[in-house]
Design goal:
This protein is 78% helix and 0% strand. The protein contains ten helices and no strands. Helix 1 packs across helix 6, helix 6 crosses helix 10 and helix 7 crosses helix 8 (167-177).
Length: 210
């Protein structure tokens, strides 16, 4: 019995250490991609910063493009769960709100922390996209996903009967304001708080869409 408990404890400890290592690699890679540039960052740089071997990074993630995908989705979604943002409880709860004005204000509050997580990396990837195919692919994938989510949001808004523009215009407004550039300009460059930005974005959507 004691041996079984010890084996279980050892397995749990190994799993916890592995998760800690993965998170450290993700954090270091994110920092390097943003501050050093995706093109200039190597797997060796990531391994050195995370305090692990190059082989450990390759074993856990694969090549640099695979590391980038993992870093991107962890930053965008907030964790490693393979569940897209659109299907997460906070988004589904927001979409269940029948009053479109209330929904739009809640939506702005929900997405503002997402901007804080992914915008720095997104801007770094846009800068690298011209010379780094993996960066360009990630940016294109984000753009496609944003358009798909914006289409979903617009269709849901139309169902409330409170939308004053076409579903196509609604989709385009969502897509244009969900790419993170507005957050970067007002919060990162302008010094706004996230709370102020969320209030502004919500009221912007309300004024344009309802």
């Amino acid at each position: 019995m004691e041996s079984s408990v010890k084996r279980s404890y050892d397995a749990s400890s190994r799993q916890a250490r592995a998760l800690e290592t993965r998170q450290r690699v993700i954090d270091v890679a994110d920092d390097l991609f943003i501050n050093q540039g995706y093109g200039r960052t190597t797997i060796a740089d990531i391994a050195r910063g995370a305090g692990v071997s190059v082989e450990t990074v390759y074993s856990a993630f694969g090549n640099k493009a695979a590391v980038l995908r993992k870093v991107w989705y962890v930053r965008f979604r907030g964790d490693e769960q393979d569940v897209r943002l659109l299907d997460r409880p906070e988004i589904q709860e927001m979409l269940a709100e029948p009053d479109l004005v209330v929904r739009l204000r809640r939506h702005a509050v929900v997405v503002t922390p997402v901007f804080r997580r992914f915008v720095p990396l997104h801007r770094a990837l846009e800068a690298a996209a011209a010379s780094e195919p993996s960066a360009a692919d990630m940016v294109a994938e984000f753009d496609a996903g944003r358009l798909d989510a914006s289409t979903h949001y617009a269709k849901a808004a139309r169902k409330t009967g409170q939308l004053v523009v076409s579903a196509t215009d609604c989709r385009d407004i969502f897509s244009a304001t969900l790419d993170g550039s507005l957050w970067h300009r007002l919060v990162h460059e302008g010094g706004w708080s996230d709370k102020r930005f969320a209030t502004f974005l919500g009221e912007l959507w309300v004024s344009l869409l309802t």
